[in-house]
Amino acid sequence: MKIFLATLLGLFTLGKGLAECTLGCSTVDSGSSCYTDFATAKGCLEGIEGEWKDQTLEVISQSLENFGFGSLYHNTGPPYNLQVPVLETLATIQETAYDTDFAFQEALQAVLTSLLDAHTRYKKPVCYSGAFVLPVAFDISISDTATASGAVEQEPSAGLLKSTFYDEYVKLFPNVDLAPLLSQPVSLVDGLEWTTAVHNWGTNHETRSNNPGARFNAAIRSFLYRSITDTVVTDVTDSLTFTMEDGTNVEVPWMTMIPDSTLFGNSTACLAEDNDAVESSSSRHDFVKVEGEGVVTHASLHNTRGGDRTVLISPDSDEAKYQISCFVQKVVGNKNSAKVGVNNVLVMKVASFSPQVNGADYNANWRGFLSSAQTCLDAEYDMIVVDVMQNGGGYVCLGLRLLQMLIPSYWKDNTKVQMKYDLPHSEFMEEWIEKVNYPDPYTNANDVEQILNPETQESFENGEAYYYPGRIVTMGGVQSNRTNWFCLDCREAEAMPVDYTPKRFVDPDKLVILTDGTCGSTCASFTRIAQEAGVATFVGTGGLWNQEMDVSSFAGGFVMNPTLLLNMTSQAGMTPFPQFATKQTWQFGWAAWYSQRLPTRPVQFTEQEPDHRIGFWQFPHVSVPADTTSDAVSSLYDSVISDQMIRLAEEGTCSGGDAIWIALVSTLAVIVLTLLVYIWFDVIERQEGMKQPLVEN
């Protein structure tokens, strides 16, 4: 009924918003998408009208009463030192009068963005769907720079390449001279060094990570592709100015890419319908898409060149739809191959832990994912590289099961990959426990990844068993009540693949996990568990060069959304949880997962450095041509394999200084041993002489 009334109200308040939104789009060879200039699009955004503010804030505020990190954000402490009074800021927004819905949406999104948590993210309604784009994308590489002392330091250098929007851009802006952008490196963007400009944008707009290095990797793409629904764009002006290496300034106007011109700026299209609140239970699983990745297919993530690579699961095959592809690369010709005992390297790309081949049939999706993993791991290899760059998570149990298939200690003892979780107490949950008392936080008895009692390794008897007595915890200087510890029930995944036993395991220095730091949620579980235990070697790509970077992001646990809360109130006979009047996406971090290394800290607020770093920023994105990404990632694999083999060879080889010391110590040891033997025999001879009888003359 609330949604129905809001729809009526919205229809009466459209006014000039819809009438004045005339895009005049260029749609040549673009299907239903269209392209227009910045000013036209901005006018449409500011013309969206609707009385949605109060209901939107009601949903957000009531949701955040169950926010898993609500107390901690008063002061997260090191390493990130965030202080965000979320509910207080929302109250201020409630009291503020905004001229347009766009201004309200920007203010709301700004405070939620400041949490730097991709699990807790707000997308504007669908009538805001679009992005400000440019005809170029960053192409960053490492170059050698001579210092004043004569030493050579490595430093990132930024070039530009044609983006996927280049041709449309030239049609819309034929008089903009783009040639200087593609012929030399960039020095400044809007008067700032390019690294500073990208870093500043990421800090204020990117939710992907609270780690600056990982956030920089995400911002490399979003800086030149600014999603209107996902990010705050009020501060976007009509153009960017690039200063090139030779001092040339090139002013480049923003173009607006609109996926569906029937939605953009259309207030009516924003209004929710009654069935918009119906979602499958799988919507709760921890998966965050990279912006624009819908058209970045798995096939573009690496090429399948012949010769030295034997493809086991092609990235463009049906089997790869389960999010795993792999090949074996021969390295026999490598000069370190025989020395380190590595002839074949298995390279696995795990794009996500959220296969959706079989719709809501999670069991079939799990079987497909783990069967693909088995296909890869049944090959002959001496080293493994697992690429989880940009993996947005998915089913937690799939990540944990893959760890077991890769690491012998986890295969022998599944409890070593179990994570400790808890939930915050709230009035909502107390009423839910009282009325339903279900032994799992979620409503669907057939849902996957239910919870276990870590002490008994069995399900809790009822809801009170995990909820009470709970624990009194101080986070961010605020004392609050939280549930007892629990872990996830992954016994179903642990029975897959059927009758499977790994053929081999490799040592930690031959199990390389490749991450860009934006690997998050379930992917964070996959990386952090192994990193904290020291059972794999981690190679981090990109980041802010020569500064620390985390191996993962948004490791918060698992998420909740208003639809699932509505389902809970319906099942318990509680007051229905409020729903949005508009079509949009909102979720928040609910359960907190705690570090094994620092047991009192949620993992999301700890930092784990990779063991090694490599200069790579050519990340897949909707704005980057697929063949460019494919070639770059393919070369990256070559470099990662070569670098690790060099490190393995160096670990087994002494330096010149070490060799001298070893020779001296060895010589000294021989001398000492000789002296000891001489003394020993001398003592024996003396004792034998004393035993001789005296002879009288």
Provide the structure class: alpha+beta
For the largest beta-sheet, the strand count, sense and barrel status come to:
7 strands, mixed
First and last CA, distance = 132 Å
Strand content: 15-25%
Described by the principal axes of the CA atoms, the overall outline is: globular
Task: Estimate the mean pLDDT confidence.
Answer: 86
Give the % helix: 25-40%
Which residues form runs of ≥5 with pLDDT under 50? 1-20, 278-285, 287-296, 654-663, 693-697
Give a count of the beta strands, DSSP E runs of length 2 or more: 27
- Strand order of the main beta sheet, please? 13-14-15-16-23-24-27
Total count of helical runs of at least 4 residues = 21
- Rg measurement, Å: 30 Å
GO molecular function: serine-type peptidase activity
Signal peptide: 1-19
Keywords: Membrane, Signal, Transmembrane, Transmembrane helix
Transmembrane segments: 659-681
Structure description:
The structure is a single chain. This protein is α+β, with helices and mostly antiparallel strands and 697 residues long. The protein is 33% helix and 18% strand. It contains 21 helices and 27 strands. Strands 13-14-15-16-23-24-27 form a seven-stranded mixed sheet, with helices on both faces. A four-stranded antiparallel sheet has the order 1-11-3-8. Strand 6 (186-189) and strand 7 (192-193) form a beta hairpin. Helix 8 packs across helix 9. The longest helix is centred in the last third of the chain and has 36 residues, at 656-691. The radius of gyration is 30 Å and the shape is globular. It starts with a helix and ends in a 6-residue tail after the last helix. The model is unreliable at 1-20, 278-285, 287-296, 654-663 and 693-697 (pLDDT under 50). InterPro entries: ClpP/crotonase-like_dom_sf (IPR029045), S41A_metabolite_peptidase (IPR052766), Tail-specific_protease (IPR005151). GO terms for molecular function: serine-type peptidase activity. Residues 1-19 form the signal peptide. This is Tail specific protease domain-containing protein. The chain crosses the membrane at residues 659-681.
